Amino acid sequence: MSPDAATDVVAEPTGASASGGGSSRAPGRPAQEVVFPTRQQYEAVVGEYKDSGFEMCADLCGVDYLGHPGRRLPEGVSPERFEVVVNLLSLSQARRVRIRVQVPETDAEVATLFELYPGVEAMEREAFDLFGIDFVGHPDMTRILLPEDWEGHPLRKDYGVGRVPVQFKEAPGPR
Amino acid sequence: MSDVTATTPADGSGVDGPRPDTVLDPPLTGDSYTAPGPDGEPEGLVAETSEGPQELGRRSETEPGQLRREVGAVLRLPEGVAIDPSDIDIEQSDDETMIINMGPQHPSTHGVLRLMLELDGETVLRTKPVIGYLHTGMEKTAEELTYVQGSTNVTRMDYLAPLHNELVLSLAVEALLGVEMPPRSDWIRMLLVELNRVSSHLMWMATNGMDIGSTSMMIYGFREREMILAFFEKTTGLRMNHNFIRPGGTAADLPDGWEDDVTIICDTVLPRTDEYDELLTGQPVFRRRSEGIGTLSAEEALALSLTGPILRSTGVPWDLRRSMPYLRYDEVDFDVIVGTYGDNFDRYSIRLNEIRESIRIIRQIVEKMPAGDYRVQDKKVTPPPRGRIDESMEALIHHFKVFTEGFKVPEGEVYVAVESPRGELGCYLVADGSPKPYRMHIRGPSFVNLQGLPLMMRGGLLADAVAVCSSVDPVMGEVDR
Prior knowledge:
The complex is a heterodimer. By secondary structure, chain A is α/β, with parallel strands linked by helices. Chain A contains 2 helices and 7 strands, in the order E-E-H-E-E-E-E-H-E.
């Protein structure tokens, strides 16, 4: 089922068995299929998965790997700061596939999947809101959870925790 | 905005353009607090409540792509057909329609959901949910908590189905740990989440009854739910936010006599679902308010990633318990309830019948509950039992370390999903080998399901908007996280 257009797409079952420890997987939990396209291949790879029966985009989220650069990646995938993780679901085959695309810090943008899966609308807005990853072509790229004048993207690893004054509009300053 | 202040250039700050009313402006102390924009931004109270671009804009000011999305034209057209501009423009111009604001404090929005509606008379043309009023950064908080503490955090997301949240986090952590769970812990978890599903659906029946005008249903729903919460209190110590299902098993075994309690709950709730049938299902007012309202096709539901009763109401037999079984759902017998028309009435019938199916599952669990451990006997994950602490120094140290430092989870990433009462509840967990998750993302079903609102409400009446919103069953704690 691996798309033939993207040649350096690596399908690697990860999960419990691949993550060391030597212990066996729990029964009844299938190995997870992960694909690593480049940013240029991303839209085409997702499109091919959609054509091959993945009817639904179950989840889309961002990850900031600033504090964990040495993560395990297959050969040929160069790690970048951000990752966009898409979980596609095939109802007909009862199967999931996860697509992890690397997004560099300096140019944090990636194509939107809105044309393929309109259901990513809110999820991409959430990733934009919390990580500052721009989804090019999204019809309404605004913040969704935070107020529109919030500064920064709180789920980034270099965003402070706890000691930031509340930034609501027109709020009085710290005393 | 104020020509009066422009005529008196007293303070030197307003060199270009009229200075906003200086009386209302608080003194600017911090760098992060910027003054209102120089040109014509809303001020004062308007500015405090405005979400700016997140709101529903006027038709003439909205870009065609966004407008198409908001009216749902993107989904109504078959694939490959170019969108005809008249599809979205044939409707009235700005001065014939009205944009009104519903929420975030409207009682029928189930929390702090704010809906902006464009109306033509009483017909809803466009809808935009504006969310985030309950956002507390729980995914960020999760990165600061250990895996042991994590379930106290996630249990507060979907506060009507807290045990499902704990379950999905625990399953994700256990998948990364690679531990094999003892059978009894799986069956205890199944018992609790099925009871939780019944209580959540009862709560939905209650609030839906209230929204549609059947206040007696509200009283009945809360009454039955109370029985289940009392059992939860007896088992876990708390009525909600239990922190009972934890990575590595459950916090304790079931209390003595749990079989009787559960059987009484089943024997009480099941006949009462027939009473609800009498009260609502055959009632002409209820049917006319729900049949054919908020319809959705299967293609639209799939495209919008809608799951749970909403997807099943369109006729797609998709239930993770059946299609991708977790725990021991492949060992119990139950039916997946599907609808036909994808309207409010189908969603009502599905939830009502899922209560019956859950009770059927619970009765089988009571019969099949095996003996054994309620948590995994892995010294890395599980703290030593209370009795050992009194006699062994090592056990005390070990216990202390599990709860202060937590246990280390090997590096890796995993996505696990369970069927919550609202749909697919997923957890994407990235571990970096430390005792804290590197990233924890919860795929909240309500968050995604809210995307269906604009499509389901379009062309309907304003009075039905409340009913449609209720039939989606959003829980704002999970939407905003």
